[in-house]
Amino acid sequence: MREPPLLQQTDRTFVLHQGRKYSYFSGCDYYRLSSHPDVLRALKGAVQKFGLTVSASRLTTGSHQLYEQLEDRLANFFRASTATVFSSGYVANLAMAQALAGDFDCALIDERSHASLADAASWLQCPVVRFRHRHAEDAARIARRRGKSSKLILLTDGLFSHDGSIAPLREYLDILPADAFILLDDAHAAGVLGQSGMGTLEHAGVSRSRIIQTVTLGKAFGVYGGAVLCGASLRQRILSKSHLFVGNTPMPLPLVAAALQALNTYQQDRSLRARLLANTHHVKDRLRELGVPVLDTPSPIVSVAPPDRRGIEALSKRLRAARIHPPFIKYPGGPAGGHFRFALSSEHTRAQLDNLIGALHGHFRRG
Ligand SMILES: Cc1ncc(COP(=O)(O)O)c(C=O)c1O
Q1: Distance 89 CA to ligand 1 centre (A)
Q2: Where are the beta strands (DSSP E) in the chain?
Q3: Are 215 and 331 part of one and the same domain?
Q4: What is the residue range of 324's domain?
């Protein structure tokens, strides 16, 4: 396995690689809140006030009023009964699985789910069956085979980061038995999908009564950490059953303060979302007009998977020549041979976007 390349972020949309400056269409800091002056100010103030870490778990002596503030703020933002914060989105999925362990007879998981969900499924203490990617009928077939009395949970990403496709939540709710649950990893959809950025539930217009939503604070909100959004009784289960809640040091307080500010900035500055949507439309609409295949979803991700090594090298070369860092990744859930994943942000300029459109068009025109 090769070591990953060392990139140096120079400003909000460029990186330095081996001394050369490239446009950067990677990372999922969709609004570049990680470098927003107000977020950084909140972080610095909290470092002075609180230091770096509470060095204890929430259940021992590590709890602090700021955690409660962030949880109230997140519950309010996502219109959920409760939010429980964790040190990362990955941990949020695992912690939820610890709380639910033993409750289900079978877990159905989208075959392209994120690794953290696959790990979480293996902690549920029940058989785990993969269903075809975003295929409600395949999930229904497995559910039927398990029989009417089987207690089921379905695990899926909301917005799949390998191509920007979106889970058909409404269809899943329709085909699943009435007592089944969905564990929804909304890492990429939180702050991106839905009228107010609440994620895939809002996008699909479904209620959260049978859905447990997990989010990361490390993508659209530009900070670090994660959270589970669920009803009050499930939160009680997390507190009493999740070893991660009991034994893991929570988010550093300066990051909690930064996340609170990031949520404020996100909600106060409506131009952020407007710019992300405009940039997404601009790139996807133009690429489609030019005959470049891109998925028709509101997600700011454009994925290109060349069929072979020659195609990968050709596109890398073309992107480098256009001074765009080639965002080639091999990631669980994505195409086996790897793909170029372009993540658009609200802060890319029109010139950067047009340069990307030109490079991709050139690649596809040449075949
Ligand atoms: C779909 C999905 N779920 C969970 C995570 C984990 O989130 P975090 O980086 O906060 O641990 C990621 C991060 O890449 C992700 O893409």
Answers
A1: 5
A2: 8-11, 14-17, 20-23, 82-86, 106-110, 128-131, 152-157, 181-185, 211-216, 226-230, 301-304, 328-329, 339-343
A3: no
A4: 8-30+270-366
